[in-house]
């Protein structure tokens, strides 16, 4: 125990205060959906590093691919040399894109870095500057992506002015929409009131003209903003507006990609093909790797040397990504994520649970109780009382049942406790 105390003292004293920690767990090892702390406690992990270890912690096929690659080549800087792991990964990814036209790739390290490079590409290709994003969006915490992120003011407060030329449109959050609340049977996720589309069209008339607008950047399913899936026709209407106005559509699939929703990418549920696709998180089972994919005619507009980075397309991360694709195919993880899915809201294993009319802090209290009393790791989402469930794509039925039993006990306990304290009616 003294060792754990020392480790926690190091983190408190020397780890940057700007990092918000969701727990004080000091992890020793992990496998599948389970993690073990240095003091031997076992926890059920329904966060997967915020959707990263989608094949489970330390999948043996991924581990083997990484071990083999480390023995051959750890680093091959992309501006200096080519290497087979990156080229193999490109070959593997092309047929998995929503369209074969998305056949030109740039690799980076994080989701935020990939988003920034997608904006860079859009501006270079269109010779226009402005970007439209949506309420509730999360695209990163870097000084560039701060301008694009709207899920919570905590990410921007106190950091001064951000990148100009960004405009915000409403996202179709039906459960919080006044039209739905007034007439839920008439307006819902299968029959949108069209307010968000009308507002997007109005934005292009009042705030950022099409001739000044380079791209519309959207999460097909809101991630940190609440795990909200749009009405069936919404993305198609956004695609139509972009096409009619010569504006590029960028899909941020950082959290929703690589089988999380039951398809390779969430846009496939809506039969929409973006001009630029942003990928990260589940791409490499925990290794730092992200990417953008676009039509070659777009990437050809960029001058050689304008794109790059020291660790871009790292061979070890690329090897992990190829092994991840093998696991997804061999273990039929798309099918598993759909079969196992808990039907609350969302698609596949990208699940949101919103507690309507709950007092502030209720969702956070559930995550705390789940961790401390039931060894279940959960995350909140957005500014409302929302939980997100992000287990590995290869989670078993038995593990889901175990997790839901722990979850149900947690909710019951918190409700009883809050009622006894007068916090909940």
From TrEMBL:
Gene3D superfamilies: Aspartate Aminotransferase, domain 1, Type I PLP-dependent aspartate aminotransferase-like (Major domain). InterPro entries: Aminotrans_3, Aminotrans_3_PPA_site, Class-III_PLP-dep_AT, PyrdxlP-dep_Trfase, PyrdxlP-dep_Trfase_major, PyrdxlP-dep_Trfase_small. Keywords: Aminotransferase, Pyridoxal phosphate, Transferase. SUPFAM superfamilies: PLP-dependent transferases. Pfam families: Aminotran_3. PROSITE patterns: AA_TRANSFER_CLASS_3 (PS00600). One of its GO terms (molecular function) is pyridoxal phosphate binding. Its cofactor is pyridoxal 5'-phosphate. Belongs to the class-III pyridoxal-phosphate-dependent aminotransferase family. This is 9272_t:CDS:1. It comes from Ambispora leptoticha. The lineage of its organism: Eukaryota, Fungi, Fungi incertae sedis, Mucoromycota, Glomeromycotina.
């Amino acid at each position: 125990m003294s060792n754990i105390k020392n480790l926690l003292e190091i983190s408190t004293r020397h780890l940057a205060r700007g990092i918000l920690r969701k727990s004080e767990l000091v992890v020793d090892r992990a496998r599948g959906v389970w993690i073990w702390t240095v003091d031997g406690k076992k926890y059920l992990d329904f966060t997967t590093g915020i959707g990263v270890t989608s094949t489970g912690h330390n999948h043996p096929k991924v581990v083997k691919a990484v071990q083999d690659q480390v023995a051959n080549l750890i680093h091959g800087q992309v501006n200096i040399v080519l290497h087979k792991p990156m080229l193999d990964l490109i070959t593997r990814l092309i047929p998995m894109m929503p369209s074969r036209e998305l056949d030109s790739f740039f690799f980076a390290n994080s989701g935020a870095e990939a988003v920034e490079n997608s904006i860079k590409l859009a501006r270079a290709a269109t010779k226009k500057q402005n970007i439209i994003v949506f309420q509730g969006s999360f695209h990163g915490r870097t000084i560039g992506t701060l301008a694009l992120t709207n899920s919570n003011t905590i990410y921007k407060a106190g950091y001064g002015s951000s990148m100009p030329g960004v405009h915000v449109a409403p996202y179709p959050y039906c459960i919080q929409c006044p039209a739905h609340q007034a007439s839920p049977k008439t307006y819902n996720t299968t029959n949108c009131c069209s307010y968000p589309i009308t507002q997007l069209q109005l934005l292009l008339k009042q705030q950022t003209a099409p001739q000044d607008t380079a791209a519309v950047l959207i999460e097909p399913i809101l991630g940190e903003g609440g795990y909200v899936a749009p009405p069936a026709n919404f993305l198609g209407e956004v695609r139509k507006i972009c096409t009619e106005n010569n504006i590029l559509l960028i899909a941020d699939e950082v959290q929703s990609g690589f089988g999380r929703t039951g398809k390779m990418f969430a846009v496939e549920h809506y039969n929409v093909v973006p001009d630029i696709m942003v990928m990260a998180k589940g791409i490499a089972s925990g290794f730092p790797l992200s990417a953008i994919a676009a039509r070659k005619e777009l990437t050809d507009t960029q001058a050689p040397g304008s794109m790059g980075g020291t660790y871009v397309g790292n061979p070890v991360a690329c090897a992990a990504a190829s092994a991840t694709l093998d696991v997804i195919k061999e273990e039929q993880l798309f099918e598993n994520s759909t079969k196992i899915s808990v039907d609350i809201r969302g698609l596949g294993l990208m699940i949101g649970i919103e507690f309507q009319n709950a007092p502030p802090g209720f969702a956070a209290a559930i995550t705390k109780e789940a961790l401390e009393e039931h060894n279940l790791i959960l995350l909140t989402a957005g500014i409302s009382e929302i939980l997100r469930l992000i287990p590995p794509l290869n989670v078993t039925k038995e593990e889901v049942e175990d997790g839901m039993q722990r979850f149900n006990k947690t909710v019951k306990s918190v409700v009883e406790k809050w009622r006894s304290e007068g916090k909940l009616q």
